[in-house]
């Protein structure tokens, strides 16, 4: 009898047991992986043996995640050490950088706890491993949505700055993390396929296919929401009667195109593989066995976010150079005290934040280039 059949029998015999009692069953992961990936006991042993060493893809992803951690750490340092960046929009950018930093860290941890080490875990440890990565990546995506919401409100409402804006900022950031933790924690709470083998995902064998479909739907709705918000912003700016409207509109359109293009490019393959996973078994869709490639590509979005959202600020670029100078990376013979020279001018993003602090008309003329 193959291990797959044994797993099926195990799943049927455990239907009357609480799934939570299976969370520390060390043999469960072997059985469920064999069933979900359609492997015999011999095939599973070979699979474990082949996974004992890091692959070239794993090494590339580890290097990428290291870059993600370093560049997002640079963003956080720049925001924290310079008072010019202590404003709502830069805090949103800092939140995005923090979530991307966690995504890179979680993915590195995931890689070193994957492979043959997967089969040394008990289910609760497996849920924590995968759930942490889901939380970090979800927080990055929800941060993008929070920034889009904030920019839309700022460009369409009056008197949006001050205490009301600060409250909204904390509410959006808090909602981002609460939602991400809830989304990533649903499987360990109970939405999984333990004691229900036919519902198991081929990519993530302890996750329910319905949960995978739910996640894909949520992320697709987020993408649609971001598209709608930025289109609305563009239409509002285009309808402005200011002389510089055309130039500003084209600048906004360029930024929106970059943001949405990178988001779709990085996440669409992962969405596709997860959607396929929810409707197809691995014996009919061999591409599901290559899911690591798609998830690794999605992680690239966390590396590109700092480039898109921070390097458009001249002051942020100057602060990056100043931090690197203090670290001794870019001194180039310059005096060390130049690292601490305060910024002389405000960036367009910061300028918009303060210029309209007491504005009583909709903010859409000068802030269009801040996106």
UniProtKB/TrEMBL annotation:
TM region(s), chain numbering: 59-79, 91-113, 133-149, 170-191, 211-231, 252-273, 293-311
Q: Does the keyword Glycoprotein apply?
A: yes
Query: Which cellular component terms (GO) are annotated to the entry?
Result: plasma membrane
The listed locations are: Cell membrane
Organism of derivation: Channa striata
As for membrane topology, the entry says:
Multi-pass membrane protein
| Disulfide bond positions | 193-200, 280-285
Protein name per UniProt: G-protein coupled receptors family 1 profile domain-containing protein
């Amino acid at each position: 009898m193959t291990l797959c059949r044994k797993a099926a029998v195990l799943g049927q015999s455990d239907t009357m047991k609480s799934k939570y009692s299976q969370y520390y069953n060390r043999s469960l992961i072997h059985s469920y992986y064999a069933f979900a990936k359609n492997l015999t006991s011999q095939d599973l042993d070979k699979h474990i043996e082949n996974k004992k060493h890091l692959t070239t893809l794993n090494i590339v992803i580890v290097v990428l995640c290291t870059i993600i951690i370093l560049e997002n750490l640079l963003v956080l340092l720049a925001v924290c050490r310079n008072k010019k960046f202590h404003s709502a929009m830069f805090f949103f950018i800092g939140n995005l950088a923090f979530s991307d930093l966690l995504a890179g860290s979680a993915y590195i941890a995931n890689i070193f706890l994957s492979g043959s080490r997967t089969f040394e875990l008990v289910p609760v440890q497996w849920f924590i491993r995968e759930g942490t990565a889901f939380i970090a990546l979800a927080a990055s995506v929800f941060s993008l949505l929070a920034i889009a919401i904030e920019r839309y409100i700022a460009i369409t409402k009056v008197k949006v700055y001050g205490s009301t804006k600060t409250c909204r900022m904390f509410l959006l950031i808090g909602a981002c993390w609460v939602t991400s933790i809830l989304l990533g924690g649903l499987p360990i709470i109970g939405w999984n396929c333990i004691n229900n083998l036919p519902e198991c995902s081929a990519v993530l064998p302890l996750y329910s296919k319905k949960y995978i479909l739910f996640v894909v739907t949520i992320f697709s709705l987020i993408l649609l929401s971001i598209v709608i918000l930025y289109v609305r912003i563009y239409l509002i700016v285009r309808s402005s009667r200011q002389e510089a409207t055309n130039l500003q509109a084209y600048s906004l359109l360029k930024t929106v195109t970059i943001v949405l293009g990178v988001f779709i490019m990085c996440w669409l393959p992962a969405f596709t593989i997860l959607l396929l996973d929810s409707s197809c078994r691995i014996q009919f869709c061999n591409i599901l066995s290559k899911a690591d490639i798609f998830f690794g590509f999605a992680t690239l979005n966390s590396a590109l976010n700092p480039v898109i959202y921070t390097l458009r600020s001249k002051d942020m670029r100057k602060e990056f150079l100043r931090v690197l100078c203090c670290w001794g990376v870019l001194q180039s013979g310059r005096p060390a005290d130049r690292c601490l020279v305060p910024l002389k001018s405000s960036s367009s993003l910061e300028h918009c934040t303060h210029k309209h602090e007491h504005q009583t008309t909709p903010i859409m003329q000068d802030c269009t280039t801040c996106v």
